[in-house]
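Much of what follows relies on a compact textual record of a protein's fold. With that in mind, consider the following protein and its fold in token form.
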Amino acid sequence: MADDLRDALLDADTLGKPVGQDDLYGRPNAVTEFGVLGATDRLKDILAGAISSIPSCEGEAQLAQMVQMQAERIMPVLPARMRA
């Protein structure tokens, strides 16, 4: 999901590779399937599920925080016109 969103929202310089490749080659992707907002919502749901699946253990909170930070790092910022 994150890769599909990055491919759709970022420019080649920011991403470090050509963008729009999924659309160019007709590859199935989350943005085509669900739209930007739908793909973003699904990614958030996946992230929440991943965090909630961390078993109770010492370091659980730190692991959840690390997962959240990595997700935020790879998730592109939605343009203002798309944010609710």
